[in-house]
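Our preliminary data section would be incomplete without showing what the modeling component actually yields. Below, a chain of 180 amino acids is followed by its predicted structure, encoded as tokens that our downstream tools consume directly.
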Amino acid sequence: MTTQTVIVTGAGSGIGLACARDMLRDGNRVTAIDVSPIPEAVLGAGDPGDCLALRVDVSSSEQCQDAVRRTVERFGGLDALLHFAAIHSTLAWADVSPEEFNRVLEVNVTGSFLMASAPARYMKDHGGGAIVLTSSGSVQASGVGGGSGRGGPAYVTSKAAIYGLNRSLARSLGPHNIRV
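Predicted structure:
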């Protein structure tokens, strides 16, 4: 397998943590991103020089662009983005405020767009790459209205939007040899 330079968001827990850890164990260079500190399970997974841990709010365009800049400076390039960062909301439709609904959309949808756009700008001028934006099975199989740990309307709506974003970016970035 060829060594790749990969940004993994949401690397502080869950799927993002597992992905960043496994990418490092496989010998890749990883920029591990989260709003919280990156756990030792990631930091100790590969060679010490192969992991750049950054605290980034994916809903900030400047922070997303800075993460790409720092990745390229540290590792000399960027091959892929694996985007898992998101926030969850289980509030039912009657309980979710407009502010909560918009915050979930800001992080999960706008954050996905910003995090994809930053590496795409680099990749289109450097031979291409791959971008993975994750959604959720809750879009097809969610319970009604949230609660009890299930995704509420804010979360499910945000994850449904990722499907459209993936399709749009795939069409827009494909001509630049960027797979989405």
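The chain has a mean pLDDT of 92. The helical segments are 14-25, 40-43, 61-75, 98-123, 138-141, 153-173. Preliminary results of this kind motivate Aim 1 of the renewal.
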